[in-house]
Here is the input.
Amino acid sequence: MLLKPVRPPLVPKPQGGRAMKAVWANLFALLFLCALASVFYVWSALENSLERQKRGFSPPGGGSFHQGLPEDLSAKTFRVLLAVPAAQRPHSRSRLGVHNLTDQDVSVGNHDYHLNRDNKRSGQQGGPVKLGFPVEDGIFWSDRMEELLPAGFKEEYTRAWQAKARAERIVKLEPGCGRISNQLATFADGTKACVRYGINVDQVQGEALTYYLAHLLGITNLPPLILSQVNTDSEQWSSVRARIGSLQWSDRAVVSLTEWVSNLTGVVTPAPLRQESSGLHPVLEELWNKTTSELLELMQWTDLIMFDYLTANFDRLVSNLFSLQWDSHVMERDTNNLLKTPRGDLVFIDNEAGLVHGFRVLNMWEKYHSTVLNSVCVFRKRTMQRVEELHRRRDSRKKLLELYRDSEPLSLELGFLSDEHAGVLQDRIDRLYKHILHCKGRYGQL
Here is the structure.
């Protein structure tokens, strides 16, 4: 009798093996993404540190800032998340803006323009305002406040700087205007400008068209700007031919030059515009207790918020609002791309995210733009009148194009807004005007 071989008992296979593999795969993917984010962050912090060392810049308090965290932590994190080439690339920009205000005695050799620690940050000088209530006609800053407001970059000064910048020879290019593709240019007379070489045309277009839109609105907080065409055979660029070669800039590329301003300080978002506040409106009791300088700064903030809404610039207050999701203290630090002169002018720098690129990624940011705009119900009369006129005539494209082409010899070379984006601009003007009417209906009888 043959014995059948005894088969070993069948061991049941563990259940959920595939699920465990999926869990491990997801975990490794998450760790990989975290590692990438860390590399981006460390690289950005290192680049910032090297830039500070080169400028002889030191953080306040001898090196400790916000418990040892980098000053611009939220902005760095924000940049890592902000991926999109004309749809999918990070939109980094220079916080170390460049520029110089009218009627200011500025040393061109002083590179510490970004955060001059000798100046007060948010207009603490001056006692409580003695001008009566600063708002009149319901929702407008008073005429008296308008008289006290700093003039910004005056028209005659701007024209003189532009004429000089178009003709002056550039003798040096060096880092100092944010990312490496931008350069700090020194002219033969020793004055300086920031040269923006865009990764693509969107950035230079956005910077230039935003500048001319500000002129249409009567906003004088943007430093003078011109366009120039890189040409190493020209008198203007020939002295920096070797540097241009090392930067791998394309010959004949159109770049923007904006005036470099020294002796500027950072600007923290004022309390009425932070997330815990009810917003800046005419019945805000805090307005009675503000100093004159604080009120004048708030006036400029209201222009900034209207302006950034129109241009869909997400790279200033909107990016801070976005970063609140993981950084509850972001509003307590300096606002991206916003600086201040010793006399109180706010300087709106690095506006490359406005109009062109801002409109491309509008769906990502529109709820934040609307939130910021809805936080304000006090306006400057002059700015409101310009908005009203552009709304009534519905000719923002025509007006902006005329100003751009009349002012800028290289406008045809760089190009203008597409018809679609021109329509978006007009639509935002109409929405802004409706918001002003809403505020007037709510507070106009006060």
